[in-house]
Amino acid sequence: MNIHSPTYKSKEEIARLFDLPLMDLLMQAQNVHRQHFNANEVQISTLLSIKTGNCPEDCGYCSQSGHHRDKTGLEAEKRLEIQKVINAAKRAKASGSSRFCMGAAWKHPSAKDMPYLVELISEVKNLGLETCMTLGMLKPDQAQTLADAGLDYYNHNLDTSRNYYSQVTSTRSYDDRLETLDHVRNAGINVCSGSIVGMGESREDRIDWVHELTQMPIPPQSIPVNLLVPIEGTPLGDKVLAEGQLSVIEWIRTIAVTRICCPTSYVRLSAGRESLTDGEQALAFMAGANSFFYGDKLLTTGNQSQANDDRLMAELGLHPEKAAPRLKVINAMTGKSELDDLPQGCPLSA
Prior knowledge:
Blueprint: H1 11-19, H2 22-36, E1 41-51, H3 69-72, H4 82-95, E2 99-104, H5 114-126, E3 130-134, H6 140-149, E4 153-155, H7 174-187, E5 190-192, E6 195-197, H8 203-214, E7 222-227, H9 235-243, H10 248-261, E8 266-269, H11 278-286, E9 291-294, E10 297-298, E11 301-302, H12 306-316, E12 319-320, E13 329-331, E14 336-337
């Protein structure tokens, strides 16, 4: 088997992928997927909000924005106690998740938050879980602190194209997002960065977003492809509820094109999955998605039940990937970590 997938770097090449007949696109995506991953293995994560609501950002899709709280009615909460987070992580591990993701509704963490975050990383990794955090923008020293603590992944979504980004938020720029991703990458943390499709953007915007991924020094190791869950009271949610949602097939096309253009990345079937039928989820996995979230809730929006996920995985013949947490990712460009230097048979290298 040829293990070298063709690379798609230009917008014109990516556009041609989007234009393929669906079955041709899915076949190509699945072939690329099988060249780089175990065909029927999926990575499972659990997401927990460790600080909910009253975010100073004005993202038009998000109920956690303090700018929309009068309309959404979402109550702000203080950051969770460490033991509550640990207990949630234990439940996630018992359920079969390999990665525990922690999200905070901040524009960026403050200096006083850093010891709290470092302790969370340490405690969750001690359970044998991979760790991921999404905390907003980071300074270089904050990224390095998280890396030194052993954080496996940092999530910071681009959300959409550069051109459409001004329709999403006005409190930060596209370059702000890319700068944080550079800090994360330079610190040696694996990058998790994806999109939210169906916010009223065009296909050209989706093409531009995929193209942005291919222009990075290395594509994100994890790429969530969310479908907007329109929340009443948010500007983009109200817009989509009034004008109609993006078709599931177009979402699946986006997943497939992402898989082809970023062949070694995990592609996550993320928000919006709770509305899919079994057949639509099967198509998404055929399109190269090989990661998803367990749990009835994703921050503040719904998700498929774990019982339903377990049933569907059994029917499709999918099995979960085992956790592989690392003490510290020394170089995200090569994937080298401190564990690589441990002797074979050491418990931490398993």
